[in-house]
Design goal:
124 residues; mainly alpha; 4 helices; elongated
């Protein structure tokens, strides 16, 4: 069992080296993202979307707006917020695959070392 896992790790490592040395990106925006069009809602807008709707009305056409500023932090609530979105203006929701399931781990690890390094620097 351990031998199979070692072979798997070696194969994965070799593939990653090949990908990193390649001059071509592994993901192309034209094939690895999509835009979901959100139709204008003519009925009353849910109050959860008031701030976002107001900001979109005041923005120029095709301005980028980060939904993270408006959506809840809880992943399930954020999913529901985006799924049920209601706006008085038509909009497009740009989606793309980002990162991996280990991103949170790496962010926390970076945060730990940055905090530790800042503490050491401040003690000098």
């Amino acid at each position: 069992m351990l031998k199979k896992y070692t072979e798997y790790l070696k194969t994965t490592n070799d593939n990653m080296k090949r990908i990193h040395k390649s001059r071509n990106p592994m993901r192309e925006p034209s094939s690895n993202c999509n835009i979901h069009l959100i139709s204008k809602n003519d009925e009353e807008i849910d109050e959860r979307y008031f701030e976002l709707d107001s900001d979109l009305k005041n923005n120029e056409l095709f301005d980028f707006v980060d939904l993270n500023q408006y959506a809840p932090n809880d992943p399930i609530k954020k999913h529901n917020f985006i799924r049920d979105i209601q706006l008085s203006v038509p909009a497009g929701l740009y989606r793309y695959p980002h990162g991996s399931k280990f991103d949170i781990f790496w962010d926390e690890l970076d945060g730990y070392f940055n905090e530790h390094n800042n503490t050491v620097v401040n003690e000098r």
